[in-house]
Amino acid sequence: MSLNHPTSTTKQRRPDWAALAIAVVLAVIAAVIFFDVARVKGAAGYSQVGPATVPEWIAFGLIGLAVWTAIEAFRGEFPVRDRQELGPIVWVVAGLIAQMLLLNRAGFSIATGVLFALVAAGFGRRKLWLTIPIGIILCLCIWLIFAGLLQLSLPAGPLEHLFL
Amino acid sequence: MSTFEFLLQGLVAAMEPMNLLYALIGVTLGTAVGVLPGIGPALTVALLLPVTYRLDPTGSLIMFAGIYYGGMYGGSTTSILLNTPGESASIVTALEGNKMARAGRGGPALATSAIGSFVAGLIATLLLAFLAPYVVQIAIKFGPREYFALMVLAFVTVSSAFGDSALRGLTALFVGLAFSVVGIDQLTGQTRLAFGVPDLLDGIEVTTMAVAMFAIGETLFIAAQGMRGPETVEAVKGSVWMNAQDWARSWKPWLRGTVIGFPIGAMPAGGAEIGTFLSYATEKRLTKHPEEFGNGAIEGVAGPEAANNASAAGTLVPLLTLGLPTTATAAIMLAGFQQYGLQPGPLLFATNPQLVWGLIASLLIANGMLLVLNLPLIGLWVKLLTIPKPWLYSGILVFATLGTIGANPSVFELGMLLTFGLLGYVMRVFGYPIAPVVVGLILGPLAEQQLRRALAISQGDVTYLFTSPIAAVLFVVAALAFIVPLILRIRGRGEVLSQMAANED
């Protein structure tokens, strides 16, 4: 994707707002880096090379890339994106959040079983009254193998304590 | 001669019953997970890393080697039978292999890819064993600036040399580099970009990032495509064995594929897919049956599959001798080394030869096991392809979070998993590559150390970096690897695309 490549700018003259947003995010990350490493600049030694040096180089790189992205966004050179369905994403993300919230209260099996069921729901299996129990039983088996045999430290809850 | 002795010693170590068992578990898990559609070797290795947490370093790395080779094998099965390659390096295999499967010649296609992978893996692993000591000899002479130059070269080839956009590759790399400076600075002990969060002081876990980007990002991406038409799995009809003509047409492509694939993997030249494309083009030019190309030519499966596996062994050369990962899979393997406090590189050959040579020897053994495992058990792997999507992806997420919880049972780590998963999803939607993020994250701190050492020697004079001949050459190669593809994309980009398009349905 070169900058002097006029043929690919045919489809749209409007700027690509999503791509512009990416450029802004890159610039913001660069700004955060500059802001944060300003604290540790004093630690640079005699050679003027310290903990702030490399982060600053990276931040400069990010700014350059932000500008380049913005240029491609205005020229409409970003690839065409397929339509994304939000529903399934909400299910999967909800599953991950549910697991996060439940993990330390209900233990590994229940939390991960709920995750299992919600992800399956995201892919079209919506019978939660069936999939949640299946998921919990499956995850209990996994817990017994990994926490019991392989000694991984997976949080235990009421269900797991039945087996301890 | 000493190489041979070391290799024999390694073989003896790898032949210990426990190590054989680890290798067997590794190749079985690697193949099983690698066969699953949408899961490439990088994710296979990242998902299975936690399984090895409680093993000793040798056993864990041996299992790892098996997982790596198994994942490569599994990917080819997927692409032949499903036409949706689990990994980019199998795209070419899908072109001819899937056509063969549809023509009822799935068995020979799988066989030539399995035997070709075996032949290539065997030759390439031996090349690795005999080449590594020489690279180590050179690597000992490397100072900080040479290492830094080498890493810059790796950054360029991973991010911008290949793939369809230098901008998006570089952006992915710099996102990874930005994440890599989070935590306590290794040289001064200063905290950077941790924002007072204690969980961030140790930096961002490479495995968390890799699992999130590859597993969760991919799951979200597939979910967001909605219910598009289901893929059909081609049944394996007839014999798995190849007839005399298949053998006659396969053995030369295997050897040519190995010769093409190994150097490409061994040089810091990016992923295995380049070798597979080159091998495919070579076979297409040399074949006596040009009319079959595009309709299921066995040479078009044999060559690229051999190249694929040869370059998989090739990437271990820079990884083991220089500590330089040139693919996402190698980056995660480096994380596997680091969890035991081992830093691959010339020193590891001196301080821990049993481990290095045991690993190389176990690659040979894993390779043999895979041949045995793949040909007779192919029916079992095919069954794995028929797992319905909801259960497949639920299972993937269960294992993805299991690994993270097992490594660090904290809600914060799961939050990172979700955040990076969403990042991986957004990057996929906009066509950003994922591998440069992972490579940037793991190689960033190493490159920073070398750079700061070099600049400390020169008291801040940046020109010092370019005044060593080796470093200068490496920087020039890196610059060429950046500029030449930019020019090629303007001129020759359509050619590759049309070649791919011509073989589509």
TrEMBL record, chain A:
Residues 21-155 form the DUF1468 domain. Keywords: Membrane, Transmembrane, Transmembrane helix. The chain crosses the membrane at residues 17-37, 57-74, 86-102, 131-154. Signal peptide: none annotated. It comes from the Bacteria. InterPro entries: DUF1468 (IPR009936). It holds the Pfam family TctB. This is Tricarboxylic transport membrane protein. The lineage of its organism: Bacteria, Pseudomonadati, Pseudomonadota, Alphaproteobacteria, Hyphomicrobiales.
From TrEMBL, chain B:
Keywords: Membrane, Transmembrane, Transmembrane helix. The lineage of its organism: Bacteria, Pseudomonadati, Pseudomonadota, Alphaproteobacteria, Hyphomicrobiales. It holds the Pfam family TctA. The keyword Transmembrane helix applies. The chain crosses the membrane at residues 20-49, 61-82, 109-135, 147-163, 169-187, 316-335, 355-379, 391-411, 417-443, 464-488. InterPro entries: DUF112_TM (IPR002823). It comes from the Bacteria. This is Tricarboxylic transport membrane protein. Residues 20-438 form the DUF112 domain.
